[in-house]
Amino acid sequence: MKRTLFALAMTMAAVVPAKAEDAVCYNCPPQWADWASMLEAINEKLGIAMPHDNKNSGQTLSQLLAEKAAPVADVAYYGVTTGIKAGNEGVVTAYKPAGFDDIPEGLKDPEGKWFAVHYGTLGMFVNVDALGGAPVPQCFADLKKPEYRGMVGYLDPSSAFVGYAGAVAVNLAFGGDLENFDPAISYFKELAENDPIVPKQTSFARVVSGEIPILFDYDFNAYRGKYEEDGNFEFVLPCEGSVRVPYVMSLVAGAPHEEAGKKVLDFILSDEGQAIWTNAYLQPSRPVELPAEVAAKFLPASDYERAVAVDYAHMERAQAGFGERYLNEVK
Fold first, then answer.
1. How far is CA 132 from the centre of its chain?
2. pLDDT, tens only, 174-194
3. Thinking of the domain 120-244+303-330, which architecture would CATH place it in?
4. Angle, CA of 113, 59 and 325, to the nearest 5°
5. Which of 111, 284, 290, 312 ranks highest by number of CB atoms within 10 Å?
6. Measured distance CA(69)–CA(74) in Å, rounded
7. Looking at the UniProt record for this protein, which Gene Ontology cellular component terms does it annotate, in alphabetical order (predicted)?
8. Helix, strand, coil proportions of the chain in percent (round to 5)?
Protein backbone atom coordinates (compact mmCIF):
# COMPACT_ATOMS: atom_id res chain seq x y z
CA MET A 1 0.00 0.00 0.00
CA LYS A 2 1.32 3.41 -0.88
CA ARG A 3 2.47 5.63 1.94
CA THR A 4 0.08 8.28 0.68
CA LEU A 5 -2.84 6.00 1.57
CA PHE A 6 -1.34 5.37 4.98
CA ALA A 7 -0.88 9.10 5.50
CA LEU A 8 -4.54 9.70 4.60
CA ALA A 9 -5.71 7.06 7.04
CA MET A 10 -3.52 8.44 9.80
CA THR A 11 -4.67 11.99 9.11
CA MET A 12 -8.26 10.87 9.57
CA ALA A 13 -7.27 9.15 12.81
CA ALA A 14 -5.45 12.23 14.02
CA VAL A 15 -8.69 13.99 14.95
CA VAL A 16 -8.86 11.74 18.03
CA PRO A 17 -7.29 13.61 20.99
CA ALA A 18 -4.11 12.15 22.47
CA LYS A 19 -4.71 9.91 25.48
CA ALA A 20 -2.96 10.58 28.78
CA GLU A 21 -0.33 7.88 28.17
CA ASP A 22 0.43 9.18 24.68
CA ALA A 23 2.60 12.10 23.55
CA VAL A 24 2.25 15.26 21.49
CA CYS A 25 4.88 16.31 18.94
CA TYR A 26 4.73 19.76 17.39
CA ASN A 27 5.68 19.90 13.71
CA CYS A 28 5.56 16.20 12.83
CA PRO A 29 3.72 16.37 9.47
CA PRO A 30 3.27 12.98 7.78
CA GLN A 31 4.25 14.28 4.34
CA TRP A 32 7.51 15.81 5.55
CA ALA A 33 10.64 13.65 5.97
CA ASP A 34 8.33 10.61 6.06
CA TRP A 35 7.17 11.34 9.58
CA ALA A 36 4.27 9.03 8.71
CA SER A 37 6.57 5.99 8.91
CA MET A 38 8.35 7.29 12.03
CA LEU A 39 5.08 7.88 13.89
CA GLU A 40 3.84 4.44 12.82
CA ALA A 41 7.04 2.84 14.16
CA ILE A 42 6.80 4.75 17.45
CA ASN A 43 3.23 3.51 17.84
CA GLU A 44 4.16 -0.09 17.02
CA LYS A 45 7.42 -0.30 18.98
CA LEU A 46 6.62 1.90 21.99
CA GLY A 47 2.83 1.81 22.13
CA ILE A 48 2.86 5.62 22.02
CA ALA A 49 0.52 7.39 19.59
CA MET A 50 1.31 10.94 18.50
CA PRO A 51 -1.20 12.93 16.41
CA HIS A 52 0.05 14.37 13.14
CA ASP A 53 0.88 18.06 13.35
CA ASN A 54 1.34 20.31 10.32
CA LYS A 55 2.97 23.37 11.86
CA ASN A 56 6.18 24.73 10.43
CA SER A 57 9.23 25.58 12.54
CA GLY A 58 8.28 29.19 13.22
CA GLN A 59 4.71 28.30 14.11
CA THR A 60 6.01 25.61 16.47
CA LEU A 61 8.18 28.07 18.40
CA SER A 62 5.34 30.62 18.55
CA GLN A 63 3.01 27.98 20.01
CA LEU A 64 5.60 26.83 22.55
CA LEU A 65 6.08 30.42 23.67
CA ALA A 66 2.33 31.00 23.92
CA GLU A 67 1.91 27.85 26.00
CA LYS A 68 4.99 28.31 28.16
CA ALA A 69 2.97 28.52 31.38
CA ALA A 70 0.88 25.45 30.51
CA PRO A 71 2.67 23.31 27.90
CA VAL A 72 0.67 21.06 25.58
CA ALA A 73 3.46 19.46 23.53
CA ASP A 74 5.97 16.94 24.82
CA VAL A 75 8.55 17.05 22.03
CA ALA A 76 9.21 19.45 19.17
CA TYR A 77 10.91 19.12 15.79
CA TYR A 78 12.25 22.04 13.77
CA GLY A 79 15.09 23.46 11.76
CA VAL A 80 18.31 23.92 13.69
CA THR A 81 18.05 27.70 13.99
CA THR A 82 14.59 27.43 15.54
CA GLY A 83 15.86 24.75 17.92
CA ILE A 84 18.60 27.10 19.07
CA LYS A 85 15.99 29.83 19.63
CA ALA A 86 13.78 27.44 21.62
CA GLY A 87 16.72 26.62 23.87
CA ASN A 88 17.48 30.29 24.40
CA GLU A 89 13.82 31.10 25.15
CA GLY A 90 13.55 28.43 27.86
CA VAL A 91 10.61 26.56 26.31
CA VAL A 92 12.60 23.31 26.07
CA THR A 93 14.60 21.44 28.66
CA ALA A 94 17.86 19.53 28.73
CA TYR A 95 17.66 15.85 27.84
CA LYS A 96 20.34 13.60 26.36
CA PRO A 97 18.83 10.52 24.72
CA ALA A 98 20.83 7.36 24.28
CA GLY A 99 23.11 8.01 21.28
CA PHE A 100 23.46 11.72 22.10
CA ASP A 101 27.24 11.42 22.49
CA ASP A 102 27.53 10.09 18.91
CA ILE A 103 26.15 13.32 17.41
CA PRO A 104 29.03 15.51 16.17
CA GLU A 105 29.85 18.68 18.08
CA GLY A 106 28.12 21.76 16.69
CA LEU A 107 25.00 19.72 15.91
CA LYS A 108 23.72 19.60 19.48
CA ASP A 109 23.36 21.82 22.50
CA PRO A 110 25.99 20.68 25.04
CA GLU A 111 23.26 20.42 27.69
CA GLY A 112 20.84 18.57 25.41
CA LYS A 113 18.26 21.31 24.88
CA TRP A 114 18.29 20.45 21.16
CA PHE A 115 20.08 17.89 19.02
CA ALA A 116 20.15 16.93 15.35
CA VAL A 117 18.14 13.90 14.26
CA HIS A 118 18.86 14.03 10.51
CA TYR A 119 20.18 16.15 7.65
CA GLY A 120 18.79 17.43 4.39
CA THR A 121 20.39 19.16 1.42
CA LEU A 122 18.55 22.14 -0.04
CA GLY A 123 17.85 22.14 -3.77
CA MET A 124 14.97 21.98 -6.25
CA PHE A 125 12.19 19.39 -6.13
CA VAL A 126 10.97 19.34 -9.76
CA ASN A 127 7.83 17.83 -11.27
CA VAL A 128 9.20 17.38 -14.79
CA ASP A 129 5.80 16.61 -16.32
CA ALA A 130 4.43 19.93 -15.01
CA LEU A 131 7.08 22.07 -16.73
CA GLY A 132 5.08 22.37 -19.94
CA GLY A 133 8.05 21.40 -22.07
CA ALA A 134 10.52 23.75 -20.39
CA PRO A 135 13.88 22.16 -19.53
CA VAL A 136 14.63 21.02 -15.99
CA PRO A 137 16.35 24.03 -14.38
CA GLN A 138 19.92 23.39 -13.23
CA CYS A 139 20.74 26.62 -11.40
CA PHE A 140 19.07 29.11 -9.07
CA ALA A 141 19.62 31.75 -11.77
CA ASP A 142 17.54 29.75 -14.26
CA LEU A 143 14.39 30.27 -12.19
CA LYS A 144 14.21 33.94 -13.16
CA LYS A 145 13.78 33.04 -16.84
CA PRO A 146 10.37 33.73 -18.44
CA GLU A 147 9.71 30.04 -19.20
CA TYR A 148 9.39 29.39 -15.46
CA ARG A 149 6.87 32.16 -14.76
CA GLY A 150 4.34 30.99 -12.17
CA MET A 151 6.13 27.64 -11.77
CA VAL A 152 8.53 28.31 -8.90
CA GLY A 153 7.61 27.85 -5.26
CA TYR A 154 9.48 28.43 -2.02
CA LEU A 155 8.21 28.37 1.55
CA ASP A 156 7.87 31.74 3.26
CA PRO A 157 11.41 32.43 4.55
CA SER A 158 10.11 34.75 7.27
CA SER A 159 8.28 31.83 8.90
CA ALA A 160 9.21 28.37 7.61
CA PHE A 161 12.73 27.13 8.31
CA VAL A 162 13.09 25.45 4.92
CA GLY A 163 12.28 28.83 3.38
CA TYR A 164 15.05 30.47 5.38
CA ALA A 165 17.46 27.64 4.50
CA GLY A 166 16.66 28.28 0.84
CA ALA A 167 17.41 31.97 1.34
CA VAL A 168 20.76 31.15 2.95
CA ALA A 169 21.60 28.82 0.04
CA VAL A 170 20.69 31.48 -2.52
CA ASN A 171 22.61 34.13 -0.62
CA LEU A 172 25.80 32.06 -0.50
CA ALA A 173 25.35 31.07 -4.15
CA PHE A 174 25.47 34.71 -5.25
CA GLY A 175 28.31 35.87 -3.04
CA GLY A 176 26.65 36.78 0.25
CA ASP A 177 27.36 35.53 3.75
CA LEU A 178 25.60 35.42 7.10
CA GLU A 179 26.45 39.09 7.67
CA ASN A 180 25.30 40.26 4.25
CA PHE A 181 21.96 39.11 2.80
CA ASP A 182 21.86 41.68 -0.01
CA PRO A 183 22.30 38.99 -2.71
CA ALA A 184 19.34 36.99 -1.39
CA ILE A 185 17.11 40.05 -1.16
CA SER A 186 18.04 41.03 -4.73
CA TYR A 187 17.37 37.50 -5.96
CA PHE A 188 13.93 37.23 -4.36
CA LYS A 189 12.99 40.69 -5.66
CA GLU A 190 13.86 39.56 -9.18
CA LEU A 191 12.10 36.21 -8.69
CA ALA A 192 8.99 38.10 -7.53
CA GLU A 193 8.69 39.43 -11.08
CA ASN A 194 8.22 35.80 -12.21
CA ASP A 195 5.06 35.26 -10.09
CA PRO A 196 6.40 32.68 -7.60
CA ILE A 197 4.16 30.65 -5.29
CA VAL A 198 5.01 31.23 -1.61
CA PRO A 199 3.20 28.82 0.76
CA LYS A 200 3.79 28.87 4.51
CA GLN A 201 3.80 25.10 5.09
CA THR A 202 5.19 21.94 3.58
CA SER A 203 3.95 21.49 0.02
CA PHE A 204 4.95 17.99 -1.09
CA ALA A 205 1.45 17.16 -2.34
CA ARG A 206 1.28 20.38 -4.36
CA VAL A 207 4.45 19.42 -6.23
CA VAL A 208 3.19 15.89 -6.82
CA SER A 209 -0.08 17.25 -8.20
CA GLY A 210 1.78 19.66 -10.48
CA GLU A 211 0.35 22.77 -8.84
CA ILE A 212 3.92 23.79 -7.91
CA PRO A 213 6.22 22.45 -10.65
CA ILE A 214 9.47 23.61 -8.97
CA LEU A 215 9.88 23.92 -5.20
CA PHE A 216 12.88 24.93 -3.10
CA ASP A 217 13.00 21.83 -0.93
CA TYR A 218 15.25 19.14 0.50
CA ASP A 219 16.64 16.17 -1.32
CA PHE A 220 14.74 13.69 0.84
CA ASN A 221 11.36 14.99 -0.29
CA ALA A 222 12.42 15.02 -3.95
CA TYR A 223 13.76 11.47 -3.75
CA ARG A 224 10.57 10.36 -2.08
CA GLY A 225 8.62 11.82 -4.99
CA LYS A 226 10.99 10.33 -7.56
CA TYR A 227 10.92 6.79 -6.20
CA GLU A 228 7.53 6.49 -4.50
CA GLU A 229 5.04 8.60 -6.45
CA ASP A 230 3.54 8.20 -9.90
CA GLY A 231 5.08 10.80 -12.17
CA ASN A 232 8.43 12.15 -13.28
CA PHE A 233 10.29 13.90 -10.46
CA GLU A 234 13.88 15.04 -10.04
CA PHE A 235 16.12 16.56 -7.38
CA VAL A 236 18.43 19.27 -8.68
CA LEU A 237 21.38 20.44 -6.60
CA PRO A 238 21.87 23.93 -8.08
CA CYS A 239 24.98 24.57 -10.14
CA GLU A 240 25.91 27.53 -7.91
CA GLY A 241 25.99 25.34 -4.79
CA SER A 242 23.77 24.91 -1.76
CA VAL A 243 23.68 24.11 1.96
CA ARG A 244 23.29 20.99 4.06
CA VAL A 245 21.11 21.57 7.09
CA PRO A 246 20.24 19.47 10.14
CA TYR A 247 16.81 19.22 11.69
CA VAL A 248 16.69 18.97 15.45
CA MET A 249 14.38 17.88 18.27
CA SER A 250 13.87 18.86 21.89
CA LEU A 251 12.02 17.78 25.01
CA VAL A 252 9.52 20.50 25.91
CA ALA A 253 9.98 22.12 29.32
CA GLY A 254 7.12 21.05 31.58
CA ALA A 255 5.95 18.44 29.09
CA PRO A 256 2.65 16.92 30.29
CA HIS A 257 3.80 13.43 29.19
CA GLU A 258 7.50 13.83 29.83
CA GLU A 259 8.40 10.15 30.19
CA ALA A 260 6.64 9.27 26.94
CA GLY A 261 8.44 12.17 25.27
CA LYS A 262 11.80 10.88 26.48
CA LYS A 263 11.03 7.40 25.14
CA VAL A 264 10.16 8.92 21.75
CA LEU A 265 13.46 10.82 21.59
CA ASP A 266 15.40 7.73 22.68
CA PHE A 267 13.81 5.73 19.87
CA ILE A 268 14.44 8.38 17.21
CA LEU A 269 18.17 8.44 18.04
CA SER A 270 18.42 4.65 18.35
CA ASP A 271 19.90 2.54 15.56
CA GLU A 272 16.37 1.46 14.63
CA GLY A 273 15.03 4.99 14.58
CA GLN A 274 17.95 6.37 12.60
CA ALA A 275 17.49 3.57 10.05
CA ILE A 276 13.91 4.75 9.44
CA TRP A 277 15.25 8.16 8.40
CA THR A 278 17.59 6.49 5.88
CA ASN A 279 14.64 4.70 4.32
CA ALA A 280 13.19 8.18 3.79
CA TYR A 281 16.37 9.33 1.96
CA LEU A 282 17.66 11.29 4.95
CA GLN A 283 21.19 11.38 6.30
CA PRO A 284 21.03 10.38 9.98
CA SER A 285 22.64 12.64 12.59
CA ARG A 286 24.61 9.81 14.16
CA PRO A 287 27.48 8.74 11.89
CA VAL A 288 26.14 5.70 10.06
CA GLU A 289 26.46 4.77 6.43
CA LEU A 290 23.42 4.82 4.20
CA PRO A 291 22.32 1.36 3.05
CA ALA A 292 23.76 0.71 -0.41
CA GLU A 293 20.33 0.47 -2.01
CA VAL A 294 19.43 3.90 -0.58
CA ALA A 295 22.76 5.54 -1.41
CA ALA A 296 22.39 4.41 -5.02
CA LYS A 297 19.26 6.54 -5.35
CA PHE A 298 21.04 9.79 -4.42
CA LEU A 299 22.83 12.13 -6.78
CA PRO A 300 26.55 11.33 -7.10
CA ALA A 301 28.80 12.28 -4.20
CA SER A 302 30.57 14.69 -6.56
CA ASP A 303 27.35 16.72 -6.82
CA TYR A 304 26.98 16.83 -3.04
CA GLU A 305 30.42 18.43 -2.79
CA ARG A 306 28.67 21.66 -3.86
CA ALA A 307 26.60 21.59 -0.65
CA VAL A 308 28.28 23.09 2.41
CA ALA A 309 27.66 23.27 6.14
CA VAL A 310 27.44 26.69 7.79
CA ASP A 311 27.80 28.12 11.29
CA TYR A 312 24.29 27.24 12.45
CA ALA A 313 24.43 29.41 15.58
CA HIS A 314 25.37 32.38 13.37
CA MET A 315 22.61 31.36 10.95
CA GLU A 316 20.17 31.52 13.88
CA ARG A 317 21.32 34.97 14.94
CA ALA A 318 20.83 36.26 11.40
CA GLN A 319 17.38 34.75 10.88
CA ALA A 320 15.17 37.44 12.44
CA GLY A 321 16.96 40.25 10.63
CA PHE A 322 16.66 38.51 7.29
CA GLY A 323 12.97 37.76 7.94
CA GLU A 324 12.30 41.45 8.59
CA ARG A 325 14.14 42.47 5.44
CA TYR A 326 12.24 39.91 3.37
CA LEU A 327 8.87 41.14 4.66
CA ASN A 328 9.80 44.80 4.18
CA GLU A 329 11.64 44.60 0.86
CA VAL A 330 10.25 41.58 -1.00
CA LYS A 331 6.85 40.39 0.19
1. 28
2. 999 999 999 999 999 999 999
3. 3-Layer(aba) Sandwich (3.40)
4. 100
5. 284
6. 14
7. outer membrane-bounded periplasmic space
8. 45, 15, 40
